[in-house]
Amino acid sequence: MPKKAQKAISANDVTMPAPVPDIPAPVRVEDSAVAKSSTDRMVEAIADQLCMIVADNYDIRIAVDADEENLQVQKLTVLINSLLENVRRNIGSLSELAGDLESKVQERTLKLDLVVQGSNDGVWFWNLDNNTVEYSKRWAELVGLDAEELTSIEDWLTRVHPDDEERLRAALREHLQGVKPHLREDYRIRHSDGTYRWMWCRGRCHRGENGRATFMAGTQTDVHRMRSIDSLTGLPNELALMAALDDMITAGLSFYAFVIAVPRIDAVNDEVDSEELSSLRRAIAQRLSSRLPFGADLAHLSGDFYAAVVPREVLFGDLEEIVISPLLSAFEKPVLTKRQRVWLDITIGATMPIGKTGHTAADVMRDAWTSYRAARLRRVRSNMLSADQIDAARSHANMEQLVRMALERDWFVPHFQPIVDISAATIRGFETLCRLEHPDQGIIMPGDFISVAERLSVMDQISVRMLDRALDLLGEWSTRAAPYDGLFLTVNLEPQQILQTDLPLRLEKALKQRKIRPELLKIEIVESSVIGNFETAARQIATIRAMGIQIALDDFGTGYSSLEYLNQLSFDLIKIDKTFVDGIETDGRKRSMIKMMSVLANALGADVCVEGIESDPQARVAEELGIKFAQGFLYSRPVAQSQIDELLGGTTGVKRRLA
Predict the structure, then answer these.
(1) What secondary structure does DSSP assign to 55-75, as a single string?
(2) Is the model's pTM score more than 0.90?
(3) Which of 155, 156, 526, 534 would bridge 150 by S-S if both were Cys, CB 3.0 to 4.6 A apart?
């Protein structure tokens, strides 16, 4: 069969599959061998080209003899080329899509890398199926290691500080168990140089269809500076100081520890703006730091308090000469701000050298603070802690706990000391005094707990309880016959209680509820109740006296303005302090002073009571001077409520002395 010019038929020549030509008439049997041979050749040629197409990424098309009369072959050729074109287009689209996806992945990876690099965080990935952990190079750098050295979760956790390890393990476990949605924990981890650094860890796990965690990933951030450096002064903070103390104690090193206060800086707070104040505090830190020997550590605690730690090994001389004197002299010159020169001073509390003796960092700082408070009490610029100061501080701390417990458990009880009518030789009333009655330690006297209660600002609570107990007792006496009928009680109130505007109303209500005659209650106040609040105190006193309640001025003569207040205020009873009574049997000047006070009080319509009568000669002098009332150990010490009946019944010494 002669060959004719061939024309390639491709999918580019058509935009859609060509119309299917009419199906030719069936081939006669006698012609089938020839037709089959020609068709086989064409199919074989097409198959060969298809193999080449597959190898060439579909970038060619099928070509057949243009004069080929076999319509089925031509039809097949057109269909194949059309399909190839669609495949080529789809592959092109997929290639373009793959390129876009790869570009986006690269962009997202770049952004993620920039974020991680910018945050300077270390990254970790924990495969829980095989229990292996991949650590980034930065994660390893944070602890001074190579990433190749770290392969497991224990390589991480065993480096965590012993005080933080259990907490971090618990946080990991709680997140993996689904108790917490995220892992967020800070902790200290050991660096390869042996020091501990503060880190902040965040992470989250992925869970399979069964809810079980399969892998977990997260970051680790170095927050050591944030946690250990004071942003204002640039000095280590208290957290860093405590860690350094722990390290020194563990190493068995001896050192001195100091608390340094700049008490007068509060006075300039209102005179300088915040920027100047910050600059002032930085200057203070620099001055303190410059006066410490090399090798010593300075830290900022809080407010205007600093701490210093000086190892014994850096001291080449006397502590006073090498450390304390230079620190005290640091502020002989003023500190300059933008607008003024500020003169400051410091107070130093120091502890003795501490070695490996079972102390903790908290113990060291407690002793340093104790030494500082001792310096303040002694009004000295520096103090070295002594054993006596430690004992006193511990006793004070124990008493603080005891006072709080006594309030909670109602251990504060009233005791009563008789107030005697000297001339009539009878008990006319009692002063209500507070005692702390411990179930094991017994009676604790006011001298041991009053100052502590005042510092804790709970004396008003104690005073209210004593007032309630006294009112209850007066209410009980009001239902009984003589000698209880007509007995009065005096109750000491705190200065702040006198100034409470609702006090008169509360007193009036309490008296009515218990059916007590107002004149049987005497409120004792001291001079400090009036100082600084004279007008308010005067109104309160006038209101209370108008109700029939009597007012007594206690410790008369010990203040600076007693006579002035006596002139301006009205009192029903003046109590002369024991300091004037001591020695009156031999001291003529004291007798004259008491006589003068008595005449003045009587002229103003007030009775007089002398306190602290301890001997018969003192009692006789008081009677000779015309004093009406007296109280003291000569008659009776303060007694519990249960003993009052014995005093009034004459079975004790007080009755015999009056007889």
Answers:
(1) HTTT-S-----TT---HHHHH
(2) no
(3) 155
